[in-house]
Amino acid sequence: MGSGLLFPAMAMATATLVIVFVQAAAGQSEMNMLFYMTDNLTGSSETAFPIAGFNGSSSDPGKFGTVVIINDAITKRPEITNSDTDNLVGRAQGTYINTNPVTGLDFFMLFTIIFQNMEYNGSTLQIQGTETFGRPQREYAVVGGTGKFRFARGYVVCTTESSSGENAVLRFNTTFRTN
């Protein structure tokens, strides 16, 4: 009789777990956002700075092992002008590290997008992945979020919108789910 009661209790516990899991999945919503990240290593509006590498903070970002810290603008459109405050969505803050000793074109990216306007003000998305500038299209992972994007999971399809020397504008087509 003791073993007969154990099986229904286990079955009931399993059914409860399944119901909880299904409810959690039903509460998720998928979002798609398109925005641009402007990364400037040179010029009057630098937003990316080498901080470590073989030559210390004067290291070349195109050299293996160089660590670059960023505070890049995130915008609705690829152009940035000082008078167009409606275009600014937020900032990308984090780092990238050159990981290719041969070409110098691969970087491990790890940054947080901090939204500064719209209904997402104060919310964040955490992004990580490998950037290979030689490829026309790259993917990063959305590994988390806060605020309106709490528990975010998804991906970013990244393309280069424009580049000039060591400066680039990257297009992020971002798809993720939240709870």
Automatic annotation (TrEMBL):
One record GO biological process: phenylpropanoid biosynthetic process
Compartment annotation: Secreted, Extracellular space, Apoplast
Principal subcellular localization: secreted
InterPro entries listed in its UniProt record: Allene_oxi_cyc_Dirigent, Dirigent
Keyword list, A-Z: Apoplast, Secreted, Signal
Domain of life: Eukaryota
A Gene Ontology term for the protein's cellular component: apoplast
The UniProt record lists the keyword Repeat: no
Signal peptide annotation: 1-27
A Pfam family hit: Dirigent
Family membership: Belongs to the plant dirigent protein family.
UniProt function note: Dirigent proteins impart stereoselectivity on the phenoxy radical-coupling reaction, yielding optically active lignans from two molecules of coniferyl alcohol in the biosynthesis of lignans, flavonolignans, and alkaloids and thus plays a central role in plant secondary metabolism.
Subunit-structure text: Homodimer.
Protein name: Dirigent protein
Species this chain originates from: Picea sitchensis
Lineage: Eukaryota, Viridiplantae, Streptophyta, Embryophyta, Tracheophyta
